[in-house]
């Protein structure tokens, strides 16, 4: 019974989004993200639709640079000139491992072209954001977010960070 309870409490999949502020043109952005994902994932990465969709055993990434839904609202909500959206679906069986890989990808994105970014779950729950030279980790997280946002995962961003309450 206790084991069943543990299984129910573990989050098995996750839909989230990474919003970016980038000065790269859309083709260069997609190509660089594809290279970063391939270098980070130690398995096959498949690209579809000219690098607009990337898929591996951990997750699927959908990169949108033209038709970002509610772009004006997002720019106002997060106070950033967002111009790229990466929709992410982490798969259940490899959720924890996939999340670690995903945060390594975020860290590599920061190292390669250093965009400002906002990572959200459930549409609006800010998990972290990077502005200027600092990553801000949200302190207002639910029980599942607190569980998976470990120090190991945060340090894989390889960027200075602080903890602060962010609006959701």
Per DSSP, the total helix count is 6
What fraction of the residues are assigned to beta strands by DSSP? 25-35%
Task: Report the end-to-end length measured between terminal Cα atoms.
Answer: 35 Å
Number of strands: 9
Structural class, from helix and strand content? Answer: alpha+beta
Main pleated-sheet profile: 9 strands, mixed
How does the overall form come out from the CA principal axes? globular
User: What series of H and E elements makes up the topology?
Assistant: HEHEEEHEHEEEHHE
| Rg over C-alpha atoms, rounded to the nearest angstrom | 16 Å
Poorly predicted sequence stretches spanning 5 or more consecutive residues? 1-9
The largest beta-sheet arranges its strands as 2-3-4-5-1-6-7-8-9
Average pLDDT for all residues: 89
Relative helix content: 25-40%
Describe this structure in words.
- By secondary structure, this protein is of the alpha+beta class.
- The protein is built from 6 helices and 9 strands, in the order H-E-H-E-E-E-H-E-H-E-E-E-H-H-E.
- Strand 6 and strand 7 form a beta hairpin.
- Helix 2 packs across helix 4.
- The radius of gyration is 16 Å and the shape is globular.
- The termini are far apart.
């Amino acid at each position: 019974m206790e084991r069943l309870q543990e299984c129910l409490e573990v989050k098995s999949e996750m839909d989230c989004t990474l919003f970016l502020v980038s000065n790269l043109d859309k083709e260069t952005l997609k190509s660089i993200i594809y290279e970063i994902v391939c270098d980070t994932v130690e398995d096959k990465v498949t690209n579809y639709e000219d690098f607009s969709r990337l898929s591996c055993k951990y997750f699927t990434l959908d990169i949108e640079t033209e038709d970002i839904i509610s772009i004006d609202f997002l720019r106002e909500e997060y106070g950033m000139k967002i111009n790229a959206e990466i929709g992410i679906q982490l798969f259940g069986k490899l959720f924890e491992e996939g999340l670690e890989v995903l945060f390594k990808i975020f860290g590599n994105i920061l190292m390669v072209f250093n965009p400002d970014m906002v990572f959200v779950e459930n549409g609006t729950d800010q998990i972290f954001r990077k502005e200027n030279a600092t990553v801000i980790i949200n302190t207002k997280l639910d029980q599942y977010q607190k569980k998976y946002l470990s120090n190991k995962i945060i340090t894989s961003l390889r960027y200075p960070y602080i903890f602060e309450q962010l609006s959701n």
